[in-house]
Design brief:
single chain, about 170 residues, mainly alpha, Growth Hormone, Chain: A, about 80% helix, about 0% strand
Amino acid sequence: MGSALYGTVLGAMFGGWLADRFGRRPTLMVVSLLYWASAVWSALARGVDSFSLARFLGGLGVGIATVAAPIYIAEIAPAGQRGRLAGLFQLTIVAGILAAFCSNAWIGGWGGEHAWHWMLGAGAVPAVLYTLLCVGIPEGPRWLLVRRGDRQRGLAVLQRIAPKLGPEG
């Protein structure tokens, strides 16, 4: 379990840099792939080293997400909803932990001695859903304007967020 925590710390240290360097959306996509790879690899791991590395990757995803997701939310959310959406982000973390405990209890009831494989692999389902949902989100408008210098795309995203604003923002 310690390897996941090490990954989380390392991911949190570099999550902001990754989001600034490569964009919020691509960073969140990488997080989704790390979640999926960690879940599948953890379920299939046959040795301690392999299992620890798989958990480390999942921890990296968690750490990066704890920094990149709030940055994205703050950038993409309309001003009047930022606080509510940031709070909702925290609520979804807790809800995800609760869902994991519930699914693990359910799987533990029928999984037998290999239930832990199924418990760890079950994380691939929400990871795939997260990946699919990330495909449909736009890049952050601030990142497009400041890092890419793409005023047209940045303003287009702002129009989607706040349609009542004029073309000059």
